[in-house]
Amino acid sequence: MKVDFIVAIGMLANMSSKNKIVKPKAATETPPKEGAKEGERIAKRLARAGLCSRREAERWIEAGRVKVDGKILETPACVVTAKSKIEVDDKPLGRAEPTKLWRYHKPKGLLTTNNDPEGRTTIYERLPDTLPRVLSVGRLDLNTEGLLLLTNDGELARHLELPATGWTRRYRVRVHGNVDEKALARLADGAKIEGISYGAIEAKLDTTQRGNSWLSLSLKEGKNREIRRVMEYMELQVTRLIRLSYGPFQLGELVRGDVSAVPKRILKDQLGSHAARFGMMETEGDAKAQKSPRPKKGSPRKKTRT
To answer: What is the pTM of this model?
Structure first.
């Protein structure tokens, strides 16, 4: 599929297989009407509203912070509909906004978290006031810079984080030490370090000068501090780590600290068959190419000069 967004590369089809369980139907059973909408789990509803992730929502419910129709929930096993009255911390849950995604150039020295016990600065303290409440798609540690995706939909954040989505993360890494190119090549088979298994990493040596080298790395998992731990295992010290892309979205020329919205039609294309899960069946609000009107039948055509 052709994508005309300058910061998007290609189209990654995100098709997930689901096992279908066929149950025998009684002769008198009436088939459901096509397009009929059912309710959704309360945790998913909170995540879709952009308040938190689904896991956080479950913790909020266990803490007694969520009410449905005036009653405090005791379990996340609750299905709500459009008619349900939902409250969080005694405040009515706002209407879910359309799902959106942003690219953010995270600077070095900011934490990807809402609160830090040590009082260090977080990305949320530096984001523009014009942004709604957003969640990050995965995390970048304190000293890692580069592309971080943000969304107002916790369910979308979870979907894009999963290795099953198949999106590759590309990094540029500066290391100090002697680089063994054969050892780099072996990372394509994965590695096990201190009992932790890491998936395949495509690594390539770009340049070396005075004991410092630039590497290009690609991976699909992205465990906590994975690149730093793998490099340390190879006796290399990471002195700079930059994420260049996440799936089809690139850092590109985005200035450090800036945020750029991903057009809805681009996000819809990249989600492929999953787009409907996030209410993205339309592309209203995005610019559409204007076609020149065809001349009516029988109307005179403009003459071209020779």
So the answer is: 0.71
